[in-house]
Amino acid sequence: MSEKALEVRSLTKRIRKKLIIDDVSFSVEKGEVFGLLGPNGAGKTTIIKMIVGLIGRTKGEVFINGFDLDREFKKAISEVGAIVENPEFYGYMSGYRNLKHYANLAAEKIPKERIQEVTRLVGLEKAIHQKVKTYSLGMRQRLGIAQALLHNPSLLILDEPTNGLDPQGIREVRGYLRMLAKSGIAVIVSSHLLSEMQLMCDRFAIIEKGKLIQISSIDELNGGNLEQEVAFEVDNADNAVRILKNYYPGFAEKVVNEKQFSVKITRETIADVNQLLVNHGVKVYGIGLSSTSLEEHFLKITGTDGQGGMAYVVANKK
Ligand SMILES: Nc1ncnc2c1ncn2[C@@H]1O[C@H](COP(=O)(O)OP(=O)(O)O)[C@@H](O)[C@H]1O
Ligand SMILES: [Mg+2]
Q: How far away, in angstroms, is 27 Cα from ligand 2 center?
C-alpha cells in the first residue's frame, strides 16, 4: 500500500457560475503535518469538505490511504477523521459519555479501550469524567480531536484548529499534532496565519482565491531559498559594499549609514557574506534579520499586501 495518506488530483469546485476551487493537486505523506494556508475565503474549508465527502466535487479525484473516494467510498472515508465545523458536544454530559455516544454511532464497533486510548492521546485523562460545559475551549478542541480519532483513521483533518485558542492552547494543539504524526498518522490543518503554520507543519500549501499557489516545506522557508533583508553592522559600510560588489556584482544593497548596510540575500548567503567580509579584514559587529520576513513572504505571494507579485519567492515547488 502506498505511503501517501492522501492524494488529491485536480480538485475543482464550481458553485453556480463561480469557480471556488481551481484545479488543486497535492499529496500528504504518513507521519507528516501538512498545512493549508490562506486568507479567509481562500477555499480551505471547501477543499476539506470535498476531501471528506461532505460536498461534491465538480472535478478531480481523491485517494485516501490509497482508496478512491469515488469507487471505494466506505473504505476511503473510514480512513479519515475530521473536524470541519466546531464539533458539537452535549454540555451536560461528561467528555467520556460524549465519546461513548459517538463510538456507538460509528459504523464499526469501537471498544472501550479505544476511548481510553484517544483520551490519553489528547491528554484529557484528568477531565474526561467532568461535564463538557466546564471545559475550556482548548479542552473542547482536544475532545473533538479524540472523537475524530476514535475509529483509528490514518488521516486526521482539522479545519482551523487553533481558532480562538490562546497561545498556551495553540502550543498544546501543536504538541499533540506532532505526537500523532510521529505515531504514523497524516495530519492536515488549515489556518490563515503563517506563524501558526510555521510552528505546526512540516509542509504547507498556500491557497489563494481557490488556487494552489505554492507548496513549501518549513525547512525550505527557514533555510535556503527565501531571500530576506539582512542588515550588517561593520566598521566601514562603503568599504564592505565595495568588497561585496567584486564578488556579487548583482547584489542590491543599501548603505544605511557609515557603519550599516543592508542586502537582500538567502540565509545560506549570510554566512558566505560574513566570511568574505572577515577575510578582507572588515570588522563585522552585527548581523540583523527582519523577523517579519516570513510574514512578508506570505503576504507578497498571496498578494494580500495589495501589491501582489511573487517578489520573495525563489523556488516555486508547485
Ligand atoms: N455554498 C456556497 N455557495 C457559494 N459560495 C460559497 C459556498 N461555500 C463557500 N463559498 C465561497 O467559496 C469561497 C471559499 O470559501 P471557504 O472554503 O469557506 O474559504 P476559507 O475556509 O479559506 O475561509 C468563499 O469566497 C466563499 O464565499
Ligand atoms: Mg474556512
A: 20
Q: What is the dihedral of CA 299, 300, 302, 306, to 10 degrees?
A: 80
Which string of DSSP letters, residue by residue, matches 229-297?
EEEEEES-HHHHHHHHHHH-TT--EEEEETTEEEEEE-HHHHHHHHHHHHHTTPPEEEEEE-TTHHHHH
* Residue nearest to ligand 1 atom 12, measured at CA: 20
CA-closest residue to ligand 1 atom 16: 43
pLDDT confidence band for 306 (50 / 70 / 90):
very low
Alpha-carbon dihedral sign for residues 289, 291, 292, 298: positive
**Does the structure show a pLDDT above 70 at 269?**
yes
CATH of the domain at 107: 3.40.50.300
Judgement on whether residues 15 and 90 belong to the same structural domain of the protein:
yes
Percentage of the chain modeled with pLDDT above 90 = 60
194 shares a domain with 255: no
**Domain span at 92:** 4-221
Verify that 234 and 216 share a domain, yes or no.
no
Q: What pLDDT shows up at residue 174?
A: 86
Which of the listed residues 204, 221, 238 is the one where a domain comes to its end? 221
107-140 confidence digits (pLDDT tens): 788 999 999 999 998 889 999 999 999 998 888 9
Predicted confidence at residue 233, as pLDDT, reads 95
Determine the average pLDDT of the residues in 287-303.
62
Amino acid at 52: V
pTM comes to 0.76
Q: Domain boundary residue among 221, 242, 265?
A: 221
CATH for 252: 3.30.70.100
Total structural domains within the chain = 2
| CB of 49 shorter than 6 A to ligand 1 | no
